[in-house]
Amino acid sequence: xxxxxxxxxxxxxxxxxxxxxxxxxxxxxxxxxxxxxxxxxxxxxxxxxxxxxxxxxxxxxxxxxxxxxxxxxxxxxxxxxxxxxxxxxxxxxxxxxxxxxxxxxxxxxxxxxxxxxxxxxxxxxxxxx
Length: 129
Hints:
Radius of gyration: 14 Å
Largest sheet: 7 strands, mixed
Order of helices and strands: EEEEEEEEEHEE
Distance between the termini: 39 Å
Oligomer: single chain
């Protein structure tokens, strides 16, 4: 499977915004479940958001609901994570994960155990107070 490639991280002040991008070379986004996870220093990796672009289903962790928005662009073969109202606690390395969309293995089934076949290398997001 092609490895996702993340971009768009950086340093931003609290209250600011960033948009992360995830591209999966050679893949057709509609055939995949794609999720964002994050890991802060010394903490476990946490799920952030997930999308199945074929039917437009999106899900969010409670910690980012109302502030983050996930979307996909089939023409660009990319998934985006728009992050608004950023907080210092959002500081982490953000990872994109992807796997094939197959029956019974949608976002809900995959995110709990982080069951994805391919992961990107991550992009750093730092939010200063």
